[in-house]
Each structure stands twice: as C-alpha cells, then as structure tokens.
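To fix ideas at the outset, we first show an illustrative case, written as a sequence plus integers encoding its fold:
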Amino acid sequence: MSDINDMITIKTNNIAPEKGKLLISEPFLLDYYFKRSVVLLAEHNEEGSFGIIMNKPLDTSFNEVVKDFPEFDTNIFLGGPVKNDSLFFIHTMGDNIDNSAEIMDGLYWGGDIEQVKEMITLKLIKPSDIRFYIGYSGWGANQLAGELKRNSWVVSGMPARELLNIDPVALWKKSLNKLGDTYAYWPNFPADPASN
C-alpha cells in the first residue's frame, strides 16, 4: 500500500523563514511536538533557528507547573522539545520588561523574570499580555532549510495581537485558512491517516 503522502501533492509557498514568521506544520507531520503545530520563530539566521509552539496549551494551570511564582490565572504551553525543563515567555510589554528582545512589532521574547514576578504581584501584567512555555523549538544551521525542502512546514505571518487573540487550539486551522485556497483542504485530512 502506498504511503498517503505519495497520493497527495503537498504544495508549499515561497515565503522565507525569518524572525517573527510562523511555521505551520503540514498535515501528515506526526511528531509528538510538531503534529499540527504553529511555531513562532523568535530567531532565524545562518547559525540556526529557534521559536515556540503557539498552539499547544497544557491541561494544567500555570501555578501547578511553575513553583516559586506569584499566583497567576493563566495557561502554560508546550514550547518545544528543547530544554523542556525550563520556562520561557513572550509578551507585549516591550521595554517595560528589561532585557526583552523584539520578535516582531508588538511582541517580545523573554526578559528579566524577577521583574515579571513583581509586575504580576502588582497586577501590572494581565494574562493577555504574556504567555509562558515549557521548552522551545530549535534547529541547527541549515536544518530548517532541509525541513522546508521536504515540505514539512509552510511559512506564514500574522500580526502579534491577532496571533495572541486566536484560540490556540484553533490556530493551526485558522493559520492555514489565511493562506487561501491552496491550503484550504489541509485541515480536512485526518489527524491520523492510519485510522482512516
């Protein structure tokens, strides 16, 4: 029996990956972390790439996972397979959090975690301003380029506010819908082709 990937031509766009762009996984990528995932690239250069999975909230509250932190009513997300014993975060607070790095207009990576704790205690940060992740996603030099050639990902973009306001569980499908008719059929493929 031929592989289902052989029966369907996967088309990808020609948008180049760069910091602030999204990687949308093709529908047959069955990796535990990256199955039907949307990854926000926080950095992309000749040395490699890293980012976080935007659409994998965990079924547990933030304070159940993260100890030594003020009470904060938010979800925590699976960011990727690298350093999944560490906490990472993105936010919309800009220079209000020292040592933040801009990913795109209105969205920042990391910063002073002690300052974040204090701002949460003082109620200066709302859950809509910040997202926390366990682990991140990373690629060595030329690794992502190889995966793009194998059509494992489609590159796209989305403004920060829109990206953070879409229900994370619906993000993969909505990201594909924004790419037009070429990708409209992807969400219709079964999540597990073997069960079809």
